[in-house]
Write a structure and sequence with these properties.
globular, Cystatin_sf, five-stranded antiparallel beta sheet, Latexin, alpha+beta, repeat, Nuclear Transport Factor 2, Chain: A, 2 domains, CYSTATIN_LXN, 18% helix, protease inhibitor, four-stranded antiparallel beta sheet
Length: 168
């Protein structure tokens, strides 16, 4: 829908698949508004989810406690590897990278872009004095339209009760 002097609005209906419970889906509707002439302004997105996805509370707490108990900060590269494999112990890191890449995609998308997380090139945990976990990522995003692979440096803060926040 073209909205005079504002932008283009898209109304979407889609199914979301639970990444932790393959085969389980929920219906979702979304409205996305791309503002006219403003490639520096993130699109407005309104989402409604009909149904619930599986709770990750137990797995979140387990991962949080495991990372907090490490003697050295977590460091990893090339997730997934060149064969598409993600080691099970790094699956939560890969999921957090998806969240971070989703934020980058949302903030930098236009009607003519299509970003996809290709790989976590590098991730390093940074020790903090508060309760949050901090991960500094170098993400490789594949821009499907131009076929470019773009590196993005992203700092993500995460806590099981507060969720994920991209701070940089």
């Amino acid at each position: 829908q073209d909205i005079d002097d504002v932008g283009h609005k898209y109304c979407l209906e889609l199914e979301l698949e639970d990444v932790l419970d393959k085969g389980r889906t929920v219906s979702c509707t979304a409205e996305v508004l791309y503002h006219l002439g403003s490639s520096s302004c993130a699109p407005d997105v309104q989402v409604t989810v009909q149904g619930e996805l599986r709770s990750t509370e137990g797995a979140d707490e387990e991962f949080y406690n495991r990372i907090r108990s490490l003697e050295k900060e977590l460091v990893a590269e090339n997730i997934p590897d060149s064969h598409g494999n993600v080691p099970p112990e790094l699956e939560p890191i890969h999921l957090l990278a998806w969240v971070a890449s989703g934020y980058v995609s949302w903030q930098n998308s236009t009607e003519n872009t299509q970003f996809h997380l290709a790989q976590v090139k590098h991730v390093k945990q940074v020790k903090r004095n508060d309760e949050d976990l901090q991960f500094d990522f170098v993400l490789l995003l594949h821009e499907m339209v131009s076929q470019e692979v773009l590196p993005w440096q992203v700092t993500l803060l995460w806590h099981p009760q507060r969720g994920a926040r991209v701070s940089q």
